[in-house]
Write a structure and sequence with these properties.
Blueprint (H helix, E strand, L loop, with lengths): L6 H12 L14 H15 L11 H13 L27 H15 L19 H18 L3
Helix pairs in contact: 1-5, 2-4, 2-5
């Protein structure tokens, strides 16, 4: 299973992120490429406890949905709604500034998340609840991969 815990997988994500440009065209969804970069940055801020979002969880989400999302060998489908506080297309989340600066900020957070030992404690996922280090790094890979595929990277 691919994960940000695996150096080769993390490097693949970094390489694909650098392949994005401000003119990258989406294959699905409503976000622009720049909004997507800010969405990913905000999602890592949530994981690190640097951005608050309202929990939207249940025992079903913390067990069954989390297991399906993290461990089934299927790509995440297009069109799954995000947490409202991170919905860039609805005007929520951190607004885009300058593309290269925002990509660099996302790359910096990716580097921080893959640093061992981590200089932060994982927060709770708004849907999946408490997650282990391995689960957060698996989720991180899958989430970024999903959105990079959204823009052909």
């Amino acid at each position: 299973m691919r994960s940000l815990a695996t150096p080769a997988d993390a490097e693949d994500i970094r390489r694909r992120l650098q392949a994005l440009g401000p003119d990258s065209v989406r294959r699905w969804g409503r976000m622009t490429v720049h909004q997507m970069v800010c969405h990913l940055t905000d999602s890592f801020r949530v994981a690190m406890g640097r951005k608050a979002v309202r929990p939207r969880t249940s025992p079903f989400h913390r067990t069954v949905v989390k297991w399906f999302a993290l461990y089934l060998p299927l790509r995440w489908p297009a069109g799954v709604a995000t947490t409202p506080e991170l919905d860039q297309a609805a005007g929520a989340g951190t607004p885009p500034r300058e593309f290269a600066t925002d990509v660099a900020e996302l790359a910096s957070l990716l580097a921080l998340i893959t640093t061992v030992p981590r200089p932060f404690e994982w927060d709770r996922h708004p849907v999946f609840g408490r997650m282990s280090d391995a689960e957060w790094l698996r989720w991180g890979y899958l989430h970024v991969d999903h959105h990079l595929r959204q823009f052909g990277a």
